[in-house]
Specification:
Two copies of one chain form a homodimer.
Chain A: H1 3-14, H2 21-32, H3 39-46, H4 55-67, E1 72-74, E2 82-84, E3 90-95, E4 101-105, E5 119-130, H5 132-139
Parallel strand pairs in A: 3-5
Antiparallel strand pairs in A: 1-2, 3-4
Helix pairs in contact in A: 1-2, 2-4, 3-4
The first copy, chain A, binds a DNA duplex through residues 18, 20, 22-23, 38-40, 52-57, 59-60, 63, 78-81.
Chain lengths: 140, 140
DNA sequence: AACAAAAATAGAATAATTCTAAAAATGGAT
DNA sequence: ATCCATTTTTAGAATTATTCTATTTTTGTT
């Protein structure tokens, strides 16, 4: 039996999500690809191995996963949402030049002092700039 | 002469943007409406007073303003981009229940320690949760 | 095997944004 | 003022990410 598949299944069940073939595939994809993929990338990559897969299913699954708090949706790019199954505290950096999105580990997320009565259940920080490679190219 | 219009004009010129009627109108709108409007809201509100206004112009102008660093684009909502002319350090909070987007003042933006070679030129923090009013309603 | 509930599917519909090509406005130089 | 080049605006078409709808398939239970 495949260890990864078991982890995937457990993680879904832990959040009350029935582990169908398609949901397992999307979840496994996110757990093994730390590339912050778009819904379309996930669909395109999974399609060859699940030829009956529909884009609607990918969207349905991603929405369900986000609702249940199993993955995060990243809106660092205006165009399309990106998804991330890593729930350890980290922030995202986008390189203005090459478009890469990198994880940057942090001890904990920053939650500024909020006005009275406001409760926060999640926080995201996005940094934009130039990555090391792009800075290197410019220096030459 | 109108003081606000002068401030608007100066702010555009300071960033090398020719202050056309349309650009002034969009910029003035953003400076006087701290509601984080979408492009569509800006268009709809300005249209009555500038009946020749085109949506493309609103988008062109907003893109120019963001490029030149005069306003920030806020991607706290997946659906549409929102815009903010206030460049003082503050973060945005979105209420999951009523959808309101609030400003929360901070001393300075948080920029975590980045990997070597990475340079950051801007950072945004989004917090999501429930606002005071919605929390109140739930408590009753 | 029969049935109800849940999940997946194809394709149409929606909506935000960008693109295109043409028209209008602007700002010199003559 | 007039001509010309450049910039800006415009309307509408095109694009694209996402959601919706109605149907079919799968799953689990009696």
């Amino acid at each position: 039996m495949d260890g990864v598949k078991n982890m995937v299944k457990e993680r879904l069940q832990l959040h009350g999500i029935k582990p169908s073939l398609q949901r397992m595939a999307v979840m496994e994809y996110l757990m093994t690809h730390r590339t912050h993929p778009t819904a379309d990338m996930i669909f395109t990559d999974l399609y060859p191995s699940i030829p009956t897969l529909s884009k609607a299913t990918v969207y349905n699954t991603l929405n369900l996963l986000v609702e249940r708090g199993v993955v995060r949706m990243i809106t660092i790019e205006e165009k399309n949402a990106r998804f991330d199954a890593c729930m350890d505290p980290h922030i995202h950096f986008r390189c203005r030049d090459c478009g890469a999105i990198l994880d940057v580990d942090v001890e904990a997320h920053w939650i500024p002092t909020m006005p009275d009565g406001v409760t926060v259940d999640m926080s995201e920080t996005y940094c934009i700039g130039s990555c090391a490679e792009c800075n290197n190219k410019k220096a030459i």
